[in-house]
Design brief:
The protein is of the alpha+beta class. It is 51% helix and 13% strand. It is built from 17 helices and 9 strands. The strands form 3 sheets. Strands 1, 2, 3 and 4 form a 4-stranded antiparallel sheet that branches.
């Protein structure tokens, strides 16, 4: 097998070069394939300079005999994992576990289609990526679909850097129209959480009854529910909190959110889900006092000790908490259906929207990077009549003369 590259040539509003593939046919070399690599003159980063670098990189890989290597995605994944384990720094064992988890998620759960796993790197292009996308859309939720493409993006970036036959990361050029339709449909069909159904006043009553009944038999669960009810944080961000993450300065208490737990797998990550998730959340005076009383009662003295731990000192498990604490007395409270920890996050953000709280403060408190993300959590079309009357009174006062 031989490859030849043409020079970069102008063509309409594009530049391009060709990769011509030759192989033995009837005992002589014949051209069997031509691939045109083109770019718009105005595009970035694939402008003329990037195209020239790309051509140089391919020529180098052809010279080294690595271009067009017949690797499959599975082979590439194993090599990438070994490479990452070799160069990684920091907590070695935890990092290796994360990569093993990534591999398991991608190949065993997310992409279980053998034909996709056996795609050759040389054949990987926009068309194939779209096919992968369609296969994933059939079996995955929008969230897992997005995570999977992030993993594929990292994988093929490595393939391009290592000159394994990938020209550039095609995952960036996938047509996501079909995925967006599924995502929109998924969001439209998602029911409101239990604590929001019935309106804002009924939701407050339900939460009050819930705290009262939990307080009678599980003090730790009561404090945790009170915290979720006020904080509106993710359950995975609350259960790994340590004593040193609870800080009181000048009489003001706050929680330092700096890590999270994947509640499905139980794996601890030493950083939040996103950059915006790394934050300090101010607590009310009542919540600060309650946490102080709880810490004293539980005799938590070590700064590295969990605030909310099991009797064995390990992290709480989401399903155990949901089944044995959160939803133990639903019928007694008058709740039909199950409450999830995420319900509190939705309710707090919806309540803040109802009270017309500052949007920037809302984004900061809940670890959202944009207003659009915060808006997704708002459920219910409640009207704040007191605020509306207050505004009407102001207008009337200005015009009374």
């Amino acid at each position: 097998m031989e490859y030849k590259l043409t020079n970069i040539t102008p063509w309409g509003d594009r530049y391009y070069f060709e990769i011509k593939t030759f192989d033995y046919v009837d005992d002589e070399f014949r051209k069997i394939e031509t691939e045109r690599i083109a770019t718009k003159k105005s595009s970035f980063p694939r402008n003329i300079e990037e195209l020239a670098k790309e051509k140089e990189r391919i020529e180098k890989s052809i010279k080294n005999g690595t271009y067009g290597k017949q690797d499959t995605l599975g082979v590439l994944w194993n090599d990438w994992k070994k490479y990452k384990e070799k160069i990684q720094h920091g907590p070695e064992e935890e990092t290796i576990k994360n990569y093993k988890y990534d591999a398991e998620q991608l190949w065993k759960i997310k992409i279980d289609n053998k034909s996709i796993k056996d795609i050759l790197l040389k054949d990987f292009n926009v068309k194939v990526t779209s096919r992968i996308g369609k296969e994933m859309n059939k079996i995955l939720t929008p969230r897992y679909n997005k995570e999977c493409f992030k993993l594929l993006g990292r994988l093929f970036k490595y393939a391009a850097e290592e000159e394994r036959g990938i020209i550039f990361n095609y995952c960036d050029q996938v047509d996501r129209t079909e995925f967006k339709k599924i995502q929109k449909k998924h969001q439209e069909n998602k029911p409101d959480p239990i604590v929001v159904q019935g309106g804002y006043e009924k939701a407050l009553q339900k939460l009050g009854k819930l705290c009262d009944v939990i307080k009678k038999y599980n003090y730790q669960g009561y404090v945790l529910v009170r915290l979720m009810r006020e904080l509106g944080g993710r359950f995975g961000e609350i259960i790994p909190l340590l004593l040193k993450d609870f800080v009181i300065e000048d009489g003001i208490g706050y929680l330092d959110i700096n890590k999270t737990v994947n509640t499905s797998s139980g794996r601890l990550k030493m950083k939040p889900k996103s950059r915006a998730g790394d934050r300090a959340v101010i607590l009310s005076k009542e919540m600060t006092q309650l946490l102080c009383e709880y810490i004293e009662k539980k005799n938590i003295t070590d700064p590295n000790q969990l605030l909310f731990a099991t009797e064995k000192g390990t992290m709480l498990h989401r399903n155990n908490f949901v089944n044995r604490v959160l939803n133990k007395y639903n019928k007694e409270i008058g709740i039909v259906g199950n409450i999830t920890p995420h319900s509190f996050r939705v309710f707090v953000i919806t309540l803040k929207e109802y009270l017309e709280e500052n949007k920037q403060a809302m984004m900061r408190d809940h670890g959202h990077a944009t207003k659009e993300i915060s808006n997704r959590y708002v459920k219910g079309s409640w009207r704040n009549f007191e605020k509306e009357q207050e505004r009407a009174d102001k207008i009337a006062a200005l015009m009374k003369n």
